[in-house]
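pasting for ref
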Amino acid sequence: MKNEKLRIKNSAAAVVLCKLFCASLFFILHSSLFITASAQNYTGNLGMFDRRTLHYGIQVGYTQSKFDLAYSEDDSLRQTLQGVTSYYAPGFHIAVIGDLRLGNWFNLRLLPGVTLVTRTLGYSWEEGYIATHRLAERSRNVESVYGDIPIEIKFRAVRWQNFRPYLTAGASYGFDFASLRKNRNQTNQAIVRLQPHDLRYTMGVGFDVFLRYVKFAIEFKMAFGLFDLKVADPDIYIRSFDKLKSRTFMLSFTFEG
């Protein structure tokens, strides 16, 4: 019952995140067309900011992360395990920003930082297995501390007064400092180990707000892992899936000066 509630909650969260991302993308594109058609000769705050060749900033963000996984094709598992699912769990991100102007519309951004990630795996056991293994775990948390090096292209729409929407796309390399070398923890339980290296592609939407002294931005971003992160282990909690790939949604706030 608990797993079923988590599955429903996770599905609802995924739908909300997807709708939010799509709505933000539509809003950026729609507002860009409107701004282009109705732009005025208005300088506003920090009128020359986007003409600077190089500037720096800081980014902090709230994340929701899960695994994209493939359930094992091992037929012997189906006698004990109905399935395994990954649920979104919260995290935190902080990074510094180096922004290089490439022209009137594009910027190249480097955002090295640290991301604290927790991802949850939920297990659905067969009733017969639960009857004989009452201590079987229904969920496990997998924690990671990533050192990230994202590189992105930022497309800036037409500025309207102190507001400017934008789109981003890029790639991010991450190294998991919390990846574990041993198979067991202090209580002799198996640990879901991960490969330390991950490569992701990213897509984001946001808008810049030009304040009196700094440029502030709110950004929504999705990151999709390309590498299989699973480390093979004979433990049933680990061999119940064949592949693990990362997926992260990020809501971030940036301050650039």
